[in-house]
Structures are given as structure tokens and as C-alpha cells.
Amino acid sequence: MGFYAGRLILVGLTLLIFFGLAERVLDRMHLTDKQAIIIVIAIFIGSFFNVNLYQSSELTIRLNLGGALLPLALALYVWLQAGTMKEKMRSLFGAVLTSALIIGIGWFFRNDEYALPIDMLYLYPIIAGLIGYLFGRSRKGAFVAAVLGVLFTDIAHGIYLIWTNTPGLVHFGGGGIFDSIVLAGVLAVCLAEFIGESRERIQGGPSSKNRDASVLKNLQAAGAKGDKKHG
């Protein structure tokens, strides 16, 4: 089911981009429609390729190109485009908190004594999306916090296996395009857009409190561009 659902999500994103419905979000993440479509296609193709970073008789560390490497590269690009150092640091803090919360929940529910009401595949991106938005606040910050948060969790899992000499597999982006890394980034941006857009419409524009003047100028320009096109 995850195989088809993941591809369905990518098709939906492509259609949104193609018909210009995601232009506002892309503008604020410093991406064009063409760039976004190329990234989506690259993630789809890359999801079929895995690279073994390390392999021994007890431990294998593997990287999926579409499920981990490309989302990571995109997150780093978006992070560099963040308006202020405060926004950058806030998104990194959100990533660390996301990872810590996911690890904590995983440890708590590691025994059969407690049962999760939802599959961890879906829980990880939900947690990362929520924390990413709350601490990233902006679309860029939310995406970075969510993607890096899940990636940090995989790294922590690998460190645990090495530290305890436990045989196992660390598969970054192992689910391909339906991996938690991809889902977390998409969900975080959707939350930021939905909640952020609602707040801005209620207050008549982006909040100017504690915001850098250049950031506000870019936000207002992106909003005006989107309103002009769809108006």
C-alpha cells in the first residue's frame, strides 16, 4: 500500500505545481515551478536506488537516493535561503527536538506492554511535521526541521547499534518516496502553509513582530505575486 500511496502523493504534488497552486509556497522556499517538478521527478527516480555506505557481517548502513539524499540536499538548500540566523537556528533546534521526541516515543513503546494506535511509519512524519512547524514557523524552517529531525533519528539509531555492538540495518530513506523523511517534509510545509496563510489573512499580512525587514519585504512580495496571478 505504501508503494502506491507514495507515488500518489508525488503525482498530487506534481499536479499542484503544474497548475500553479503551489506557487506561493515555492516562492517562499526560493524554488520555481520547473525546479520543483524536476526535484519531484528526481525523488521518484532516486527512490529505486540504494547505496551501501558501510557493510559488515553485523551492520549495514544504506542510503536511498530519493528517500534521503535528495530531501537532505533540498533541506540544506532551503536552510541556506532562510532569512535570518535566528530562523536557521530555530529550525535546527526544531530538528533536534523532533529527533529526541521520536526516539523517546520509540523507546517507550518498544515493548508489547504498550501499543501505539498508529503505525510508526505515519507517526514519525506527523510528529516531525508538527514540531517542524511549531519551531520552524516559516515554510522553510518547518521543512528543514522536519526532514533533518527524521534524519537525525536514523543517525541516532546507527550510533546505538554501533555503540552496543548490536547487529542491524540502518537504512536512510529506506521507504523511498514514502519514507518518513519525505512525508515529514511535505506535511510540515502543508501545516506551515495552511496555518500561516490563515493567520496572515486574519491579521491582514505577515506579522512584523520580531521579523527582519528584508524577510518581511520578501514575504509581502511573494504574497502579492501569488494574489496577482490568481486574482
Task: Describe the protein's topology.
Layout: H1 2-18, H2 23-28, H3 33-46, E1 50-55, E2 59-64, H4 65-80, H5 85-108, H6 120-136, H7 139-163, E3 168-172, H8 180-203, H9 213-230
Parallel strand pairs: 2-3
Antiparallel strand pairs: 1-2
Helix pairs in contact: 1-3, 3-4, 4-7, 5-6, 5-7, 6-7, 6-8, 7-8
Describe this structure in words.
This protein is mainly α. It has one domain (2-230). The chain is built from 9 helices and 3 strands; from the N terminus they run αααββααααβαα. Strands 1-2-3 form a 3-stranded mixed beta sheet. A hairpin with a 3-residue loop joins strand 1 (50-55) and strand 2 (59-64). Helix 3 (33-46) runs antiparallel to helix 4 and helix 5 (85-108) runs antiparallel to helix 6. The radius of gyration is 18 Å and the shape is globular. It starts with a helix and ends with a helix. Mean pLDDT is 75; it is low at 226-231.
In short:
With 231 residues, this protein is mainly alpha-helical. 70% of the residues lie in helices and 7% in strands.
